[in-house]
């Protein structure tokens, strides 16, 4: 679920290209296996849509390019379950709140277009701020756990500098019927640690790796996260399985330690750090998305409920749930000189796993 302006750029893409969106460079792919959008600020995946969910005509690309739309009509490049021949005004009246045009919502924000496994805010903040949504890279610390913060007063940015930095696309390779991207920061972000990102996408899954190499001389304690914003039909109707019996820290209750009883039904705001490396399945009633994690013994589940951040409206926030692969205070990484650490997350539909 992405803003209409990003959807329009994907509709105009045939193959692969770089262009600008929200004043940032983005890399887009729209091929037979599906779609991928990556922002070069933060090496951040913004959008992933496998061909199996795009329901293209046989032998055609998902969301195949079409001539310009007639004024006053919705895109016919949306998935079948989102297509409509209604005029914009009538179609938006029938759309979910978070997908309506600004004038229909009484809010100054773009329409959110259904489709894809990730969510991006319709009101991204201006540079040098980060875009909320997709899969931001939190590095070399998670939240305000600034173990690797080298600033004199440990006043570095929330979630570290990686998500704010510019990254370079070092290589684009074919990978299992899809694509593999390798990225690295354009400037040094830490005196002893060097990160790089690997993104793999094909018709069945999305896989993201954040790899940290220690090139210094003394051990460093780091944390981090792949802060995945997963698109859902309604955040308060979601269920998570795979965490039963896991201990967790409840950040909304002063980091009180508790144990998960059965599946997690999302009914209100959440900010929990689960001590678990198990796969999690997110069921929003229309899709069962499997979230596997590598190099992580912390699963973070977050939703702001009716008090979302300033760059997101409550209506738009009802369309995401964060399920994150992380290293937190429960499983920090002590990296010694010459060593590497890989933090990964793999998204796939349960039926395909």
UniProtKB/TrEMBL annotation:
Pfam families: Aldose_epim. Residues 56-90 are annotated as: Disordered. This is D-hexose-6-phosphate mutarotase. Signal peptide: none annotated. InterPro entries: Aldose_1/G6P_1-epimerase, Gal_mutarotase_sf_dom, GH-type_carb-bd.
């Amino acid at each position: 679920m992405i803003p209409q302006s990003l959807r329009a750029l994907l509709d105009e893409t045939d193959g692969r290209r770089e262009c600008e969106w929200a004043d940032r460079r983005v890399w887009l792919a729209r091929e037979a296996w599906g779609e991928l959008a990556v922002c070069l600020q933060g090496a951040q995946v913004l959008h992933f849509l496998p061909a199996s969910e795009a329901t293209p005509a046989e032998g055609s690309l998902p969301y195949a390019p079409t001539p310009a739309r007639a004024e006053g009509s919705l895109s016919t490049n949306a998935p079948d379950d989102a297509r409509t021949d209604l005029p914009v005004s009538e179609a938006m009246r029938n759309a979910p709140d978070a997908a309506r045009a600004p004038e229909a919502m009484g809010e100054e924000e773009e329409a959110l277009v259904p489709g894809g496994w990730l969510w991006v805010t319709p009101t991204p903040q201006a540079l040098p701020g980060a875009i909320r949504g997709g899969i931001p890279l939190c590095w070399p610390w998670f939240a305000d756990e600034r173990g690797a913060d080298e600033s004199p007063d440990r006043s570095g940015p929330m979630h570290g500098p990686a998500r704010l930095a510019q990254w370079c696309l070092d290589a684009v390779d074919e990978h299992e019927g899809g694509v593999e991207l390798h990225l690295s920061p354009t400037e040094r972000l830490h005196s002893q640690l060097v990160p790089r990102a690997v993104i793999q996408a094909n018709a069945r899954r999305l896989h993201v790796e954040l790899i940290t190499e220690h090139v210094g001389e003394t051990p460093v304690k780091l944390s981090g996260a792949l802060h995945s914003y997963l698109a859902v039909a309604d955040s308060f109707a979601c269920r998570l399985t795979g965490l039963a019996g896991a201990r967790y820290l409840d950040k909304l209750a002063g980091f009180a330690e508790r144990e998960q009883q059965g599946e997690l039904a999302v009914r209100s705001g959440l900010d929990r750090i689960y001590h678990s490396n198990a796969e999690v399945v997110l069921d929003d009633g229309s899709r069962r998305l499997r979230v596997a994690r590598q190099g992580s013994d912390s699963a973070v589940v977050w939703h702001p409920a009716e008090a979302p951040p300033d760059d997101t409206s409550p209506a738009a926030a009802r369309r995401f749930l964060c399920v994150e692969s992380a290293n937190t205070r429960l499983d920090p990484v002590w990296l010694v000189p010459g060593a590497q650490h890989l933090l990964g997350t793999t998204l796939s539909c349960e039926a395909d796993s």
